[in-house]
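re: ur question from yesterday

yeah so i grabbed the chain u mentioned. its 296 aa long if i counted rite. heres the sequnce exactly as i have it in my notes:
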Amino acid sequence: MVARLSLDDCRRHAPDFAGLLAGAAGRYDVPGRALSVRTLLHLPRTTRPNGTVSRNAVIGELKRNAIRLRADQKAIDSLIPKDEFPLSDLRFVRLGNSQADQIFSRLHYLRSAREGSVNFALVDPVNRLPVTLCSVTPLEWMRVGRQLQSQFGVPLGAAWDVSRVYSFDVAPPNAISFLLAKVRQVIRREIPSVQLLTTAVDPNLGFVGASYRAANWQQWMSIEARPYLYVDGIYASPRQLRTRFGGANLVELRAANPRGRFEQSRAKLLDSVIYCCRLRGETEVVPEENQRRLRR
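ran it thru and got these structure tokens back, copy pasting raw so excuse formatting
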């Protein structure tokens, strides 16, 4: 039994982490995949700069996130599908904000919905419950938008971002890639000004982009990782900090909110990967030597 685990081992679900994860998921009756992502989001808070974290810290984060995940599931139990159906039986729909916002705000690892999104889902044929869903939003990441314009000729405003994806454990194989293909079709048909879909894949959470590659998306660039931020031990994105506190500068936040505990990760994080999909024609493969690494 090792006393310390590496973040890389946790991301790869090496045996030590996989065993702890399975034990916590079973003990608290929560899905292992969702628990893994939430835990990986919070582990960097207690990880040393050399990328290792104590076994006890891993156990503690698994327990804490399992308890929160169980509470989040209970809060929207009526929206959680329980039955499995083959992919061919699922129906593609545009999903209302009420359902989508509840699911993303409770079960997505960021625990928030993106304002101004258009939501789509594959729903089961009996209860019409979302099995796999995503939100699509005009691209707001200007650094990515400018690179798309300069390198690929995509005008500013012509790219939209797949900003949220969530798939329940009952979803059949290939549900996400099937949903992405349907979304591409409907956006191309209904919003002709959109030329490209993008998304950011964070490998620090164990994501490898398999569903995007299966839907014929291509890796076009990467973007430098920035430290994860936490408030009272809970992850908060810069957007969430700005909404809640009016800013995301930790020094200023600590001065203005002396009772709050504002932290950031210290270990080096992996860069996010930007996947893209043209709405018309084939999405070209970009050789690795031509993929730009964008700075924050």
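noticed a couple things. DSSP finds ten helices and 13 strands in the chain. also The chain has a mean pLDDT of 95.
anyway ttyl
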